[in-house]
Fold:
Amino acid sequence: MAVTLADVAARAGVSAATVSRVLSGNYPVAGATRSRVLRAVEELEYVVNGPASALAAATSDLVGVLVNDIADPFFGIMASAVQSEMEPEKAGGKLAVVCNTGGSPERELTYLTLLQRQRAAAVVLTGSAVEDEKHTAALAARLRRLSEAGTRIVLCGRPPLPEDAVSGRGDALRSGTAGRDADGTGAEDESTAPITVAFDNRGGARRLTEHLLALGHRRIGYVAGPVERTTTRHRLEGHRTALADHDPALLADAERLTVHGAYDRSSGYDGALELLRRAPDLTAVLAANDTVALGVCAALRDQGLRIPEDVSVAGFDDLPFSADAAPALTTVRIPLHEAGARAGRLALGRESAPPGGVATVRTELMARASTAPPRAD
Amino acid sequence: MAVTLADVAARAGVSAATVSRVLSGNYPVAGATRSRVLRAVEELEYVVNGPASALAAATSDLVGVLVNDIADPFFGIMASAVQSEMEPEKAGGKLAVVCNTGGSPERELTYLTLLQRQRAAAVVLTGSAVEDEKHTAALAARLRRLSEAGTRIVLCGRPPLPEDAVSGRGDALRSGTAGRDADGTGAEDESTAPITVAFDNRGGARRLTEHLLALGHRRIGYVAGPVERTTTRHRLEGHRTALADHDPALLADAERLTVHGAYDRSSGYDGALELLRRAPDLTAVLAANDTVALGVCAALRDQGLRIPEDVSVAGFDDLPFSADAAPALTTVRIPLHEAGARAGRLALGRESAPPGGVATVRTELMARASTAPPRAD
DNA sequence: CCTGGGATAGAAAGCGCTTTCTAAAGCGAG
DNA sequence: CTCGCTTTAGAAAGCGCTTTCTATCCCAGG
Structure:
């Protein structure tokens, strides 16, 4: 049906092997031959058959990107950044496969299997992990399988897998892709352990809470994320560390002033109402993220409270809309684009793994108009 | 290296052909045999080799989704919706390849070639088209090529290709995929022309402008999008139609009250300042989309103008943050999710093409707090 | 009891590429 | 001028699956 390598070879008067070598470029071909081949490719408008070459080479040009929901800018920005590192000029022909897991661990496993089926060159996992031993073990097993098949694994914005869950980086390693460098002198030390780009959620939450404490707040509500997520726990830990450091007495009330919900607007709305019910006198509310903060703001306003005069509100993530909210939202900036880009480079092997396999990206407090000193009442 | 079909076949005591048939399910296999095979698959943890089956079957499980920028919720929502139609349960094993074109027609062509290389099952193109004959022709040619190779094409949120650019749906059609139904009695009428899910941008813009006119506005500025985009032109047309219908005299000033920019916040900011310079007495500003509207609002506020008391502002698209802006943004809702989902179903062949190949989705005016009657000055 | 036809399963020929392994030149040195 | 090395190119063997084309097997009908 379509033009094949053989057609190009015939036209250029060379063998198929030569055409393949010209196109892949990892074998010397004389200049004259090369240009003859390239001309034939042009003339015939030849398009490589990806599946065929993936079959023969045992690896494809696909890079999987697992996200909770691509429609959420938090993930959209990371995915976009990962993708930006795979532009045709930077990484010839790599394609990003975006998989919406909806935060479900099962779905995550399903997609990883699908990506393994496609012999993906790499997989970037975003979205916080679920703290469940069974899921963690299943995930680690699946990732090991992928890894053994030559797929590079990068975790972005989620903590590294627990040591004991990973283990057993087996023997099957060198049989697969490591064809070149056959004399064995080269340092075949390419670790297959997943690389992690982690966010400093604890530090960010701590600084945010310190900011509120410094403003004079003492009764601070917290609309947290799903209770089983690592991200939720880390942010909560940072928050409570700051409270404890400031005044251990504050910690006593922290439990009561915390509600859990999803990472969406309505959780923020409902959570704020619940907090108000529990503690009508609170002067500040922290939200699991910016989207939740929007919901919190809406609820507070619906209750006739002004922001920040009556209640201060802060978010997390610093998504693009946060600076434009009215009042502009105090939040913690996560360099999502930088993190995603780095994950992309790591996935493509264009950047070497950080020492220990974990790179933590800094978070930054963005103090804006939604937080102010509490009224002196 | 990995477990192959042959291994499964050996374990189940059948031939590879039988295993293949069990897994693809498009050929009768006796119940007992089938379950024996399935058990072997389980036991060996067999994962199909995607490239190999794509090679043999001449089509892959990949569906390309071209977007301007996946980090932009406008595209994120559509991509997410397309993806939601390909969940493992709905469409076994289909995977979405998201390609950021950055709005560049060249990049668009590059990605289409890459997708052709992967023998993508379908491609969904979003993002407005560029009005340039050369690009249109090149795009049409590329799409025809893809189409001939058996890839289904769906345009989502962009107008259909001009008739003359498409043309020549050649002879190469039936040679490819149309294997089954060989007796020729079946109606082999599956048109390969691209299917379109278009937005009613004209109508939306017209209704939005009518809304402002009804409120009493007469000096309405317009911060439009990139001048070469079809979407920009359509929205502008709708706007001017409304003006002309209301009072032809208004049309005279429309040119002066229009500035063009990109679809981003800073274009809105700059555009608003420029409009204010040209016409300090304007009472309303329409923006190319919601993001631009945010920039417009920021600029107006920085100039000491209140919204909507001094100047009304309206956007377009109704992205999630619009309702939460302060004041809540009047805008035109585009059912992005519905459109994307429909595009996804069309791409997967789970919904038949609309008559004429074009489905237009309705847009809806969302009148909110950012627009109000002008002050009586 | 024999036969034609439907239901199942196997054999084998690719799909189009990559990559050894091998062979033919091309070159400087002895 | 010839030998042995390097450089360049071809032959051919797969990679793992799909899908004809065939070969059984079994049953109802004659």
